[in-house]
Amino acid sequence: xxxxxxxxxxxxxxxxxxxxxxxxxxxxxxxxxxxxxxxxxxxxxxxxxxxxxxxxxxxxxxxxxxxxxxxxxxxxxxxxxxxxxxxxxxxxxxxxxxxxxxxxxxxxxxxxxxxxxxxxxxxxxxxxxxxxxxxxxxxxxxxxxxxxxxxxxxxxxxxxxxxxxxxxxxxxxxxxxxxxxxxxxxxxxxxxxxxxxxxxxxxxxxxxxxxxxxxxxxxxxxxxxxxxxxxxxxxxxxxxxxxxxxxxxxxxxxxxxxxxxxxxxxxxxxxxxxxxxxxxxxxxxxxxxxxxxxxxxxxxxxxxxxxxxxxxxxxxxxxxxxxxxxxxxxxxxxxxxxxxxxxxxxxxxxxxxxxxxxxxxxxxxxxxxxxxxxxxxxxxxxxxxxxxxxxxxxxxxxxxxxxxxxxxxxxxxxxxxxxxxxxxxxxxxxxxxxxxxxxxxxxxxxxx
Length: 448
Known about the structure:
Blueprint: H1 14-26, E1 32-37, E2 43-45, E3 48-49, H2 56-62, E4 70-75, E5 82-88, H3 93-99, H4 104-112, E6 116-119, H5 123-131, E7 136-139, H6 144-161, E8 170-173, H7 175-182, H8 187-210, H9 217-230, E9 235-236, E10 241-244, E11 265-270, E12 272-274, E13 277-278, E14 281-286, H10 293-311, H11 319-336, H12 344-350, E15 376-378, E16 381-382, E17 390-393, E18 396-398, E19 413-415, E20 418-422, E21 427-429, H13 438-446
Helix pairs in contact: 8-9, 8-13, 10-11
C-alpha cells in the first residue's frame, strides 16, 4: 500500500502567520491589546485526555500546536503592526519525559518568529507589565479563559489608576476581525484544503469498493478513517456519518451500527483533517453496487440540483441564490415524482419541500468544517462570494417512512456534497476525485 501514499504539501511558513498577526494588529487601535488563548487538554476519563486539537483562531495566527498557550498582540500603529508575545508551556524535563518535547520560550521565538515569549510560570507577572497603560482589550468574548484574563487585567488596571496610570476602559470581541480574515483563504491554505479533499476522496472511493451486504456501517467508517490517517491526516474532521437505509434520513446520524442490506443505499458524510484543515464530502451509493429504478429517479433529481448549484458558484453570487436554485430544482422534481402536489411557486412559497429537504445547501469550509465568517453583510444583505472563499455544495432528499409515501421511495436518503473554491474566473471543485455519476459509481464498485 505504500505506493498509494500521497506526497504531502509543504507546511505553511512562519512568515505567513507573522504577516497575519501584522494585518490583524493594523486593524486595532495603538492603545489597545489583544488576548487570544490556545486550547487546553480536555480529560476524557480519569488520567487520559482527548487527542489535543489547537484552537483554530490561535493556530491561524501562530501555527503553534502546543496546549495552554496564549497570544498577546500589542499594536503600535506602525507598518509592522506591533509586537507579538506568546506564553507557552514551561520547559520541564520530568514532564517532557512523559509527554514529549516542549518548545519553551526560546523555541517559540525561534521556530514561529514571535518577537517575545515567556513560559507560563511567568504569565501573571509579565502579562500585567505588558497590559499596563493599554486602554482597550480585544479578545474572543466566548472564551472563558480570555474572559478571566481580561477581568484580571481590569482589576490590575483599576489599582494602577489610583497611582495615576491610564485605566482600562473596556473590551471588545476580536473574533469578527479574525473571522473576516479567515473567510478569504490564501494560496497556502488552498493547498492544504486541496490535500484534505484528495485524502477524503480516496477514502470515499475505498469505502465504495469495500461495501457489500453483510458488513456493518462501522466497518465502512473504519476503512474511511484508516485512509485518513494512512495519508497523514490527524483523523476525521468531524464525526463520520455512515447511514444505510432509513438511517440516511437522519442528518447527523453517527451511531454507524446497523448492518448493510442488499437493495439499500448507504450515505457517507466524512472528511479528513489535514494540518487542521477540513475535507467534507458526502456520497450516496447502493450497498449491492447497482441503483434500483426508484433510487435512480431520486438520485438523478439530487444530482441535477447539485451540478446546477456548483455551476452557479462564482464571485458576486450569494449562497442564498445558490440555495434558492436548489430549492427550485428539488421542488420541481418532487412534483414530477408525485411526492408533492400543487404548482411550483405555491409549493415553494408554502415551503412544502421542507418535508424532504431540511437544510441549507452550503457552508464555509476551512480550519473548521463549518468554518467561521458571516453569511450576511447585514440582516437584509446576503454576502456576495469572493475569490478565495471555500464552500460546500450539498443538496439532499430525505424521504420519510410515512403511509402517504409510495412504497418504492420510503426511507431513502440521498445527499451529494462537494468542496468548491471560489476563483476569480468562477470555481474549482476540489473533491472531484470521487465519482458522483451513477454509472461511474457502479463501475467503481464493480471493480473491487
